[in-house]
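Job type: complex structure
Entries:
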Amino acid sequence: MALVETLYCKICTFPVDFCDYNKKATKCKAWLEENHPAKYQELYSNKENEDVDEKTKKVEESLKKMELRQEKKDKKELEDQQNSKIIIKTIERTKRKRSIEIQGLEVFPLNLKKLSKKFSNKFATGCSIVDNKLVLQGDLADDIEIFINQLLKEEAGLDDIKVEKVVAKRKKTEEELAAEAAAAIANGTSTAKYVKGDENKKA
Amino acid sequence: MFKKLTKQDIKGESQLKSSFSRNLKQELIAKYPSITADELEEVIPKKKPLSLVKCEDRLSLYTCDNQILFAQFYTDEYIPHLKFVHKFSRGCFKSLQVDKGAIKFILGGSDIMCPGITSKGGILPSDDVKVNDLVFVYAEGKESALCVGKLKMSGEDIKNQNKGIAVEVIHYLGDGLWNMKI
């Protein structure tokens, strides 16, 4: 006797014959049709012609409702993600040493623990998780902004997420900030984001 | 039982000795006589060491190649992960079948009631299955198992009383254990 090979759905992770009991059934069907057309035929083609009795009809209806609810939830989640902001905060530690705190990553389907490893590998610094925030050692705000944008595009398929850079308030840095902001205005568009963040902070 | 299991419950991971995997295989073969050693070898290769993932509340998970194979409370019976169950044909295990109407509720985490088994689409467990045995539940018109549970009533009782909880569901498709990735 050989092992039984079960085909699992990539969308809902269930074995394919249970896809229609999942909350994402429509997406599952599309996936199956595209990737395993033979299996799709086997599962769904003869179903439409069958006479359905009262009971199965009821079940199907309730399943449809469930799916709709899930869809709404997904939509809201996506909206949340689109609206949420990632804040990169620069914190001055000692005179010339800075650390970076990244806030607002937990809304996205990313694994913070893995991400922290990735950061520490990529930037060759220490990176740790403190209450859902990533803390990196070193003044890396600019690099991280680019990296996060790229990461979100690749891993989550999300574009145009707002990334805001903030410098933690301190007396010493205030002057620098003003100078930097002035420089940014002089430079024009390239650092426009920075200026915006700065204004928010003051207001 | 695994409904709320998440990654945060993991306490630590350690590799197991190869002797453990040998013993485990022997135990499995003794328990499920229809499984041959060759088949088992394919699922749990000698080359790849098993590892033990400890979780909250004295729950241990046995994994191989980042796939969960078994779960265990304290030192109780090994509860096979459904992906493990799916690898073997239906005849290997003590099984029963439920009708279509029950699937939805099982996948929501509810226990199995008698009528779901006694109705037209269901199949009662065979006579040699005793109360408190681990049973694998299949569904009408579906190939794969959808949950693992503990039998709470004998086959005879299910038929005669036809009321109340027949199977206590432990692990089902889409619960915390199913969605856990290590």
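Summary: The beta strands of chain B are 10-15, 50-55, 59-64, 67-73, 79-80, 95-98, 112-113, 134-139, 147-151, 165-172. The domain at 91-176 of chain B is CATH 3.10.400.20 (Sulfate adenylyltransferase).
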